Each structure stands twice: as structure tokens, then as C-alpha cells.
Here is the input.
Amino acid sequence: MKRVSLFGIAAVLSLGLGACGDDNGSSSLSEFDVSSSSPNVSVDGENSGTLMDELSSSFDVSSSSETFLLDSAAASVWDTTKITYTLKPFKGPLANPHKGFTVPTGGTWTFVPEFEYGPYGSLNNRAWDLVSYGSGYQQWNKLNPEKGVYDWTELDKLLDACEKNGLGYALRVLPYTPSPINGNDTPTEKYDWTPQWVYDSGAKKVTATLQGKGYRAQVPVWDDPVYLQAAKDFGTALAAKYDGDPRIEYIDVRSFGEWGEWHASHLDGSEMPSAEIEMDMLDHYASVFKKTLLVLPSSGAGEVYTHALNIGIAKRDDGFIGIPGRPDSLVRAYEAGLPTIAENIAGYKTMLNYTDVIPGGYLKWTPDRWVSAIKTAHLTYYVLDQDSDDGYEFYKDNKALADSMTHVIGYNFTVTKAELLTIAGDKETENILNITVKNSGVAPCFFDIYMVAEFVDGSGTVLEQLGKTVTVPKGTFKDEMVKEFSFASSVPARQTNVAALPGVSVALSIYESEEAFKNGKNPTVRFDNDGLQANNKLLLKP
Here is the structure.
């Protein structure tokens, strides 16, 4: 802990400089926090320890700050002002990047007015106020129509549309879905999204039966070596194109099974590959993706799940609320220092009709179960609902609850204390902003953040930066953690101190990169405090 040196204060007090502040609002040393239980101050040093202790505690700063010494040799006259800021919580939904809620975002048509459930549609679907990233799937055969040939055109258009609307995108590339199978004559290409060239190269298929309907279906042999190599080659190409792309929030490794979920639960006659093959696929993805977050889909379990955590692959669960214990299964990923991701077992309207008969049925959706699932799993990401219409209905019924949980899911930075000290000497003036910030969410912040303090005028125009940018590395600001930060700068005595000008305030900002700040961009992360400006900066108010 570093603190300002206070040598020579007794002499200042003995000269009567401890009187009340002058007419311009500056205050004297007597206005520091001195305990009312020990008001006696003696200039002979006998009782001065209490005052010195109190004054020293007023200047405590975090280890990230610089040392500022103001002793009798450097400053013979002191004029000190302390401003304590009023801090209140932010009201309403608080969407922030790299955490929070999503709704299905199937294409660029999501953002056109003609789509009634979209953010600009006729229904005025305010569920989008909670959404921080889009999510959806792409077909492998569309992205990779020929061997060595890739078509990213439509995906890039969707990523650009999401970015334009302030959203990232969570990507799934599916090799197979039984959803369109509605009879024995359903064209294979409707549901088997493994490229035809893979089969032409020698990969094998089997005929399976769709459970409950009896329809025949052609299914890839998931451990066929030709199939496996093609799947790895696609992963390599995907990484070459998108690893580190800021538009991508995370990528599910969807190499096997129905919907790429690593199971063949609805297809009699289709078998998943061995755990060794599954782990080998995860190893390959981890070897080619160095920057973008990878995710193991819901049915990856047992030693495969353990292996995924060991190589830094996060976990999603698609059975939330409907199946007991599913939130608990994600705690392992949280404890491994990785984001947790979830999706309900079915749409909101469907889950309202569940009967809570276990086993053999599913638990119904209730507000208490929803909140408990988010908190138990320490969720960073959650699919608000599986379809746009369900998301719309969900938000209509649960607006206040959903809004409140935007302050809970993932990280959530709340400034709990803020004080500005201005210490004027005959050679220089020091401005020191001390703030206390709590991560009041349920998960760590999984990206680097860059915290900035600035002096601004009444219109919000930046006058100058206060102190240096403070960097907080990813994963170090954990849930329920409280951190103290200080921003300090000095002004030569003969120069104007911006902090003392009429109408000047302090604005706090959180950036995702220091370059964004230096290039004059607005911050993207918002504090959970009243006083947020349109540019996402927090204006501190006395």
C-alpha cells in the first residue's frame, strides 16, 4: 500500500492554516475524515498520532497507483479538497459484451423491419434490449461445397449485420439434423448437412430409424476415417478464416451427431464414436484455434468433458430447467476458470406445460428455477429462448425479472465508492481519484479490461485524462470480488488545474482495448451505476 507523506502538517496547523475553506469551495485539512471520538490535536506531537493516522488513511491508494510524496521540503502550504460522489444503481436492463443473453439470429433478415420479432419489427420486441450477442447455426455443406472450397459469403454478411447492431455472434456449424425428416422419401440433403464430396471421397453412411416416427434416415458413420479427416480439415479452414475475429463470440465444436450435439439419441442404428476419437477432435480444434473461445456441446460428458476443460474448451448445456441437476453439471467448468453456457431444454411456452413428472417427463419453467439455474451454474452466456416468438412471449411475461438478471449473469461492475482528492502545494497540485469497484455478477470477466478516468466539462467533452489507464487482465476480476483503483496526476502550481474549473466532472470508462481508447472510440462496457451517458461513460456526481 502506498500513501501520501504528511510531514510538516503540524506546522501548517500551528499557523492557523487549518481554518475552514475559502469562498471558492476549497477546504482545509480540518475537513479530512477525523474521527469525532478523538478531536484533540496537539502541535507538540503528543496527541498528533490520531490525526496523522486519519489523514494517512484518507490517502490510501491501490498498488497500481504511483507514489506521491508531499513533505515539508516539497510543499510548505497545503490546500486540500475532497469530493465524495453519490453512487446509485442503474435501473433497467444492462446488456454488456462477452456475457448475457442471446436469441436465435438466423440471418441478416433478423434485422429487417419485415421480421416482426426482430429488433426493428412491428411487434416492438423489447427482448432485444437484453441481447448482447446473436447465435445460430450454419450448414457444413453450404460453407464447404467442394473439397478445399469454402464459401463464407452469407456468414460474413450475418456477422457484419450483428456487428452493425452492436452484437457478437456465437457460431455452430452442423453436420446433421433430423428435424426436416417427415417421411421415408425426405431428400437426404434436407437433413444430412455433411457435404456430398465427403461421401464421394469414400466416407460411409448407415441407414437409421427416427425414433417415434419410424422414418428411415441416412446418417454418416461418425468414426469413418474419411469423415473424420474431412471434419478436421474444415475445422482448420474455419480457424484460418475466423480465429480471433472480434465478430465471433464463441464457436461450438459440432463435429458429431444430431444437431452436432455429440449424441444420436433419436436415431436407432447410429452410434457415436469412441471417447478417444471425440477427444482427438477436440485436440485438433484446440490446436488450430488460438484466440477464439471453443465450446463443447451439451452431450459431451465424462472423460471427454474433463479433457475439454483441461485444454481450455468451455461447456454448454442444452437441458436447462427441464432436467434436474443440469445447472450443477456446469460448475466444473466455472471452477476450471471457463465461461459456462446454457440453453433451456425447450421453448418457454412448451416448458410452461410440463408436469414436473420425473422420471419420464420434464420440469416446468418457473421464475425461481430460472434464477436458480443462472446462479447455480455461474452462467456467462444464456440463450434467452429457442425461437424468436418464444423469446417475445417470455419477455412479455417476465420483463422485470429478466431485466434484473442482466445485472446478475456474467460479470457486473458496480462502483461502490468514489472520492476525488485535490491537494494543492506551492510547487504542484495533485488530483487523486480513488474508486472501489465490485464484480456483483455470478462469473469472472473473461477478457482484459482497460479502465480510464477523465475530466469532462458540462457537455461531456473530455478535457484531459486523469492519471494512467489501468489494465485488469482477464479472469482476475472474479465474481463477488472487490477491487480498489486509483488514478492520479499532478499539475505545476502555475498551471491551471482542470479539476478546479467550474462545471468540471469526472467520467469513468471501461474499454476492451487500450487502442480503442487512444483512437477516440466510445467504451463498450458499462458500469452498473446511475449516471451512464449515451457514450457509455459513467459521469460521477457529487
Remarks:
- The two ends are 26 Å apart (CA to CA).
- The first helix runs from residue 9 to 14.
